[in-house]
Amino acid sequence: MFNALLEHAADQAAEAHRHAYNAAFGELGLNWHWDATTYARLQAQGRDAVRTYLETEQSHLLRAYEADFLVTAIETAKVRCYASMANSPARPAPCVSWARDSRARLTA
Q: pLDDT digits over 52-88, tens only?
């Protein structure tokens, strides 16, 4: 029973981190979404999950941006979104898509 509770808690923590990554992607204007299967596959890569995804699934971005810059931006936004979610579990993180906001201001 105790092991089942620990496993459930670990699953919930993983889901919270996955949602924080997805919120970070939205905040940064990246049209990415990690489902549970993708997130689990990437987590098996260890600490380089974002870099692995970037290099294998979004390599076109590496023509315009340094990998370290993108990884740092994503991880920083993810930490901010995760903290926001942890502080307010009843509501989604108030992460803003700056890309969408910028376009709206440009057309206004």
A: 999 999 999 999 999 999 999 999 999 999 999 888 7
Q: Quick one: CA dihedral 4, 10, 14, 19, positive or negative? A: positive
Q: What angle do CA 36, 38, 40 make, to 5 degrees?
A: 65
- Residue 18 burial (10 A CB sphere; 0-12, 13-18, 19+): buried
Picking from 49, 34, 31, the residue whose alpha carbon sits closest to that of residue 100 is: 31
Helix (H, G, I), strand (E, B) or coil at 31: coil
The conformation of residue 93, written as its DSSP 8-state character, comes to: -
40: its two tokens: 């689990």
Q: Are the C-beta atoms of 16 and 78 separated by less than 8 Å?
A: no
For residue 82, the SS3 value is helix
C-alpha dihedral (53, 73, 86, 95), degrees to nearest 10: -100
State the pTM of this model.
0.74
